[in-house]
Each structure stands twice: as C-alpha cells, then as structure tokens.
Design goal:
The chain is mainly beta. It has a single domain, classed as PH-domain like, CATH 2.30.29. It has one helix and seven strands, in the order αβββββββ. A seven-stranded mixed beta barrel has the order 1-2-3-4-5-6-7. The longest helix is centred in the N-terminal third of the chain and has 5 residues. The termini are far apart. The N terminus is likely disordered.
C-alpha cells in the first residue's frame, strides 16, 4: 500500500480543486483537495503527493481511526487524531 502511494502519479486529478490551508501540520498552505465520493477526501501538495486522507465522521460516533473532514461551501476543516484542526478554503477557479 505505501509503495503504491509513493509511486502515484505526480499530476493532480482533473476533478481536484486548489485550496489554501492555515495552521497545516504538513507545512505548505497551498494544497490540492479532491473529494472521493461523499464521505472521503484526499489532500495533496502541489506535486500531487498525498498529505492526508480524511473521512466524514459517522453520525453520532465521536471515535475515529482517521483524519476527519467537514465541509461547508468553500470551507473545509480537517481534524487530526490528536485534535489538531486545519482550516482550508477552496480557491476560486482561474
């Protein structure tokens, strides 16, 4: 699995959206955000390397073995396992 992620394409998928994040643990504030269906998302750097994979929390379940994601319009919020919150915003298409 890790080998597959490491050898992934270095181009962003066509359905990805550019976003800017604040207080991100991965350093760069410029990322590419891609929804993977209704319940998951992937965050990549500008070289299409995976930074985080997140899932929408199950309704009524506070425990999660993964990074959580919530979205509201252009606003995206990631919550890591240690409780760190990363706020991102989808940038308008050029």
């Amino acid at each position: 699995m890790i080998r597959a992620v490491g050898s992934a394409s270095t181009t962003a998928p066509h359905d990805a959206q550019a976003a800017t994040c604040s207080h991100a643990p991965w350093g760069s504030s410029e990322v590419v955000f891609r929804r993977n269906g209704r319940h998951a998302a992937t965050v990549m750097d500008t070289q299409a390397r995976v930074l985080a994979v997140a899932s929408v929390p199950a309704r009524g379940n506070d425990w999660s073995p993964f990074v959580r994601i919530t979205t509201r319009g252009a606003a995206i919020q990631f919550t890591t396992l240690d409780g760190t919150i990363v706020d991102c915003r989808i940038r308008p298409a050029d």
